[in-house]
Design goal:
Blueprint: H1 3-57, H2 61-75, H3 78-105, H4 107-115, H5 121-128, H6 130-146, H7 151-175, H8 180-211, H9 224-257, H10 264-280, H11 284-302, H12 306-343, H13 346-355, H14 359-374, H15 378-431, H16 437-459, H17 467-488
Length: 505
């Protein structure tokens, strides 16, 4: 892939993700004011059960499609791509149909026996319809990633979000006086409507793009289903077991927090539904780059481009850590102001401050996980994910009832640090990446916090004039000072950090 194409795709994906995240945050603000933190907590608990079924419907087939289609593009086989897509859609259709039936007809059992909250019945039934369409959208997204075309699914994702919000706004306003049960169901009804639109539109775009492919009709397509399952099975298994364990965690947390706090469900909603989305927001660029690198990594691996893999791994790891450090410092210093600005809630602001040091760990873990899957190491990510989730459950069981919120935050620190170290270690070992710990991690961390503290000192009088102006100026000055310092001390090169991968292999 040409560098210009890669940069264009990264820009499109980043811009669309920023818009979607921004819209999502605005939507979350409105939703929190409409259904309250308790409603957000119930929403998160219900959604965690739903992810068990979504792990099957959207499963690892998408990653398999991206890798296999990327390989077929190298060999020039149009028939191979067609066979891959048909096989992937068939696999996902069967899985989605089963998932829908279990979730829709078992909603009462799941609500009573698992969630211990009958208010979840309507929401689970509303969500079940989205499973039918999720797999198709996921497969086609994998196809377009392999084709190095981000505009189609970026545009569809934006339309999907608009439809979701429109349906939710209409439905919630109609039923909000009927209680949390109906309000949450209205939110999930919007999810199902958006998934249906997304699947229909993506299918149309896929058919148009496939017709324009100028490849041969010949190719060795033996064992396509088997290869898809080989790649997807550990990813799907990992996601499912991880979802199962995280669902157990989300069910346990409000109950165990209740030992230490009377408003356990509200507190849980603040952590999972309000604070964490804000912390993940700046990672949009990194997610875009890691997504686009999957086909590049797969292609480089197939062609034996070891130096390309080594250099790319070094640069993406450094980039991720660099971005993570500065936003960690910003959330630490200005977390309370951000929480008050967005949610008008000091509790959320406090959580942003407390959770800010794990931001670089979350970003590194997410990016490295995606790259490892591109290197056919999904079995490793599966094992680490399961081990992490099991360990979290054990720690929650023993620590949260006694230590409450601070115990859970401590568990999050430990969990993210462990998975980050394992994934980064595996990535460097697999690719032979050599990273200078002081110049890439220690010094940038010091410079990040120094930049933000200095900027805050300079701008502290501006805060009285308005939180929004203060935060914008703080972010701008801090980022400028930080990256200038990194260049001065030689921590980064004075050229694009992602240059290595986007070369035609």
């Amino acid at each position: 892939m040409k560098k210009t194409v890669f940069i264009k795709n990264a820009a499109v994906l980043t811009a669309s993700s920023l818009i979607l995240r921004f819209i999502g945050i605005i939507f979350k603000i409105w939703l929190a004011s409409s259904i309250g933190s308790e409603g957000i907590g119930l929403y998160q608990v219900i959604f965690s059960v739903y992810t068990l079924f979504a792990a099957f419907s959207a499963c690892g087939v998408c990653t398999a499609v991206t890798r296999l289609v990327a390989n077929q593009l190298v060999t020039g086989s149009k028939s191979g791509i067609k066979r891959i897509m048909k096989s992937a859609n068939l696999i996902n259709f069967v899985i989605s149909a089963v998932s829908f039936a279990v979730l829709f007809f078992g909603a009462e059992i799941l609500s009573g026996a698992v969630l211990k909250d009958e208010r979840a019945v309507l929401s689970l039934k509303a969500l079940s319809f989205s499973l039918v369409f999720m797999g198709i959208s996921s497969n086609i997204r994998g196809y377009f990633i392999a084709r190095r075309k981000t505009a189609p699914f970026a545009a569809v994702s934006l339309a999907e979000q608009i439809v979701r919000i429109a349906v939710v706004l209409f439905a919630v306003n109609r039923v909000k006086d009927m209680g949390i049960s109906y309000s949450c169901a209205a939110v999930f009804l919007g999810d199902s409507a958006a998934e249906m639109l997304c699947a229909m539109t993506m299918n149309i775009l896929y058919k148009k793009d496939f017709k324009r492919l100028k490849l041969t009709e010949n190719g060795d397509n033996i064992g396509v289903k088997r290869e898809i399952i080989r790649i997807a099975a550990p990813i799907t298994g990992g996601r499912y077991l991880n979802s199962l364990l995280r669902t157990a965690e989300n069910i346990m947390m409000p109950r165990f927090l209740a030992f230490a706090s009377a408003s356990a469900l509200s507190l849980f909603g603040m952590i999972k539904g309000m604070a964490l989305p804000i912390l993940f927001f700046p990672g949009v660029l990194l997610n875009a780059v890691s997504t686009l690198l999957i086909p590049e990594i797969s292609e480089a691996s197939v062609l034996g481009k070891k130096q390309l893999l080594k250099s790319g791994a070094e640069k993406i790891t450094v980039l991720t850590a660099t971005v993570g450090f500065i936003f960690s410092a910003i959330f630490f210093v200005a977390g309370r102001q951000i929480g008050m600005l967005i949610y008008k809630d000091e509790g959320v602001g406090m959580l942003l401050c407390l959770l800010s040091p794990i931001v670089p760990l979350m970003y590194l873990d997410s990016v490295c996980d995606g790259i490892l899957k591109g290197l056919d190491l999904q079995s490793f990510t599966f094992k680490t994910s399961i081990a992490d989730s099991v360990l979290r459950l054990i720690l929650i069981y023993f620590i949260v009832p006694k230590w409450g919120l601070y115990g859970f935050i401590g568990i999050m620190y430990f969990s993210n640090a462990l998975t980050c170290l394992l994934n980064v270690g595996k990535l460097t070992k697999k690719t032979g990446a050599e990273i200078n710990a002081f110049k890439s991690f220690i010094l940038p961390l010091i410079l990040a916090y120094a930049s933000v503290f200095f900027s805050n000192l300079v701008l502290r009088n501006i805060e009285a004039g308005g939180r929004l102006v203060y935060i914008i100026l703080l972010v701008g000055f801090s980022v400028l000072l930080y990256f200038s310092s990194l260049l001065f001390f030689g921590c980064i090169e004075n050229r694009p950090i992602i240059r290595e991968f986007p070369k035609k292999c």
